[in-house]
Design brief:
Length: 382
């Protein structure tokens, strides 16, 4: 996977923390607290919980009557979920009390959607395992895999590595993001053993997405005019609605499902052409598509990063990108809402944002750059 694509998949890296525990990690993994009975109300901890994926876990958990606690710094959307217990701390031991608020606390299920550095995941996982917690669900990433050269690869594919596993930096171009996620997975497994669940999402999309990676497409379609369509209509695409991902992860906890899963959607193959056609349909077909082949885009320095969000060339080193097998996750109950629903809801949410935020899309082409690239493609050979 290209280093810039790893950065594109990465959400803002949250602060973490570490705490030296006297008990050996392997001993923690051997402890097996009794599983809750089917349908029981669970005690749930979400590490983070107030930005994008976190609320998609917390909301259905509260609606189901589970007892929910959030552990975070209280800096991002602290007003959310007043009915949940708020545990304040910082996963970085150099800031505040670290994971002190977690010591001695036992939970049936922990959802870690804010772990980016191994020793910080180790801190939370060891503290919670030492208290006898039941299950640790760690949100990793498709970027954890070493490369994207094989189409249809599954969870047995090799994961990324890095020269210095103690380095706490994602690198200048996020080249270590995936390897760090793989190392975080290892820490979760060492603390919780067979009671660890690893979820590897691809592009998470939908309402409240702060990255605009998917949002750019329906927003651009709504503006009308000639819209650049990257690559070819048959190029593969994988996205998952944040609400589908959050609800499924909660079900993994409710059903005590363990293992490693690629959380990519939809169930059946999706193409760039289908996605763009559905964006046009949702916005009244104000725009027309100008398909620009991948080879031409790459020659112009465009390879699916920043200006062309989510798309990747469907050959070479990225021929397996957007084709990861989700069969294991689907078998474990992962379901997907229709993509037109995600498109409509994303566009409706975006239109509720302040005007200055709507004018500040985090990625995608400027009108000038898009028009120039389309014109250059049409003028080739003349």
């Amino acid at each position: 996977m290209s280093t810039s694509r790893r950065r594109f998949l990465a959400l803002a890296a949250g602060a973490g923390g570490a705490l030296a525990l006297s008990r050996p990690r392997l001993a923690l993994a051997e402890e097996k607290p009794p599983a809750p009975s089917p349908g029981a109300k669970l005690s749930i901890l979400v590490l983070g919980g107030t930005k994008f994926l976190g609320p998609a876990i917390v909301e259905p958990a509260l609606a189901a009557g589970h007892k929910v606690a959030l552990f975070n710094r209280g800096k991002t959307n602290p007003q959310l979920f007043p009915e949940a217990e708020k545990l304040r701390g910082d996963r970085d031991p150099k800031k505040g009390d670290g994971v002190k608020a977690l010591l001695g606390r036992r939970f049936d299920v922990i959802f870690d959607d804010s772990g980016y550095y191994p020793r910080m995941v180790r801190a939370s996982a060891q503290a919670l395992a030492a208290a006898g917690s039941g299950q640790y669900v760690f949100v990793s990433s498709i970027s954890a895999y070493r490369d994207n050269k094989v189409a249809g690869a599954d969870e047995t594919a090799a994961v990324a590595t890095m020269p210095d596993p103690t380095l706490e930096s994602m690198g200048a171009n996020y080249e270590y993001y995936g390897a760090l996620k793989a190392l975080c997975e290892k820490e979760a497994r060492e603390a919780f053993g067979e009671r660890a669940t690893i979820v590897r999402p691809g592009y998470i999309v939908g309402p409240n997405d702060p990255t605009d990676r998917f949002t750019w497409y329906p927003v651009r379609a709504a503006k009308g005019g000639e819209m650049l369509a990257p690559g070819a209509p048959a190029d593969p695409l994988q996205v998952i609605d944040v609400r589908d991902l959050g609800a499924w992860m909660l079900r993994l906890g409710e059903r005590r499902v363990f293992g490693t899963f690629n959380a990519c959607g939809p169930k059946d193959p999706l193409t760039m052409g289908t996605m763009l056609e559905q964006c046009l349909a949702a916005t009244g077909r104000k725009a027309t598509l100008a398909w620009v082949p991948g080879a031409f885009l790459r020659a112009r320095g465009e390879n699916g990063e920043g200006k062309i969000p989510i798309w990747a060339p469907a050959d070479g080193d990225t021929q397996g990108y957007h084709t990861w097998s989700n069969a294991r996750a689907v078998k474990a109950g992962l379901t997907f809402r229709p993509l037109p629903e995600t498109i409509a809801d994303t566009l409706a949410w975006f239109r509720t944002l302040p005007a200055e935020r709507q004018a500040d899309l985090k990625c995608g082409f400027t009108e000038k750059d898009e028009a120039e690239l389309i014109a250059a493609w049409k003028a080739r050979g003349t």
